[in-house]
Amino acid sequence: MALMSEGRITVPNRYIERLREFLSRETPVPREKLAGNSRGAAVLVPILERQGELHVVYIRRADHVSSHRGQVAFPGGRVDPTDATLLHTALREAQEEVAIDPTTVDVLGAFPEMSTLTSGITVAPFAGVVPASTAFAPCPNEVADIFEVPLRALGDARYRGEYQWEGAKRSKFPAIFYGGHTIWGLTLRITENLLSILNGKD
Q: Where are the domains of the chain?
């Protein structure tokens, strides 16, 4: 997904506008559906352009958090009483967890809500473009690491495999392995949704 010119529109911009147009058809999950729900959350899928390529930003959750410890995720969390909408939740949490300034986010829209298969948490995901100059900083209470993956790598079969999860029972799940990180579960499903839209599939 290298930077190329198509008239006055670069390829990364074309992908961003495709995503914006698609997500504009989706009605965001109403706040009241997840507010006060201990198993409800909103997340931000941060996208940025670096050296002519689009990258997706992920976090690895700290090893001492209450749920999904040590797993790869998107910045986000549960609804606060001060959040007017679930988008506000996602932006507030992204600021608290990785220092993304909400005023710099170009919000593209909402994905359909999804639920985790292992813990039953329902998540409202939102996509947004953040400046490449963003100075990401992990909140040590919640985030162990922040990393970026280029879109071309996310769609590359060479990084695909199976992850064996040692939960209540041993299970295998599809996964992306990149840079020493394992993207699986709900985070992978949101990523697959993103890739599907960018590839022109509903």
A: 5-195
**Nearest Cα residue to 26 out of 114, 157, 145:** 114
Q: What pLDDT digit, counting tens, does each position of 12-53 carry?
A: 899 999 999 999 999 999 898 888 777 789 999 999 999 899
For residue 20, count other CB atoms closer than 10 A to its CB: 15
Which value, to the nearest 10 degrees, does the dihedral of the CA atoms of residues 59, 14, 198, 127 take?
40
Q: How far apart are CA 79 and CA 99, in angstroms?
A: 18
CB hemisphere CA count around 137 (13 angstroms): 5
Region 5-195: CATH code? 3.90.79.10
Which phi-psi region, left, alpha or beta, contains residue 52 (left: φ > 0; alpha: ψ -120 to 50)?
A: left
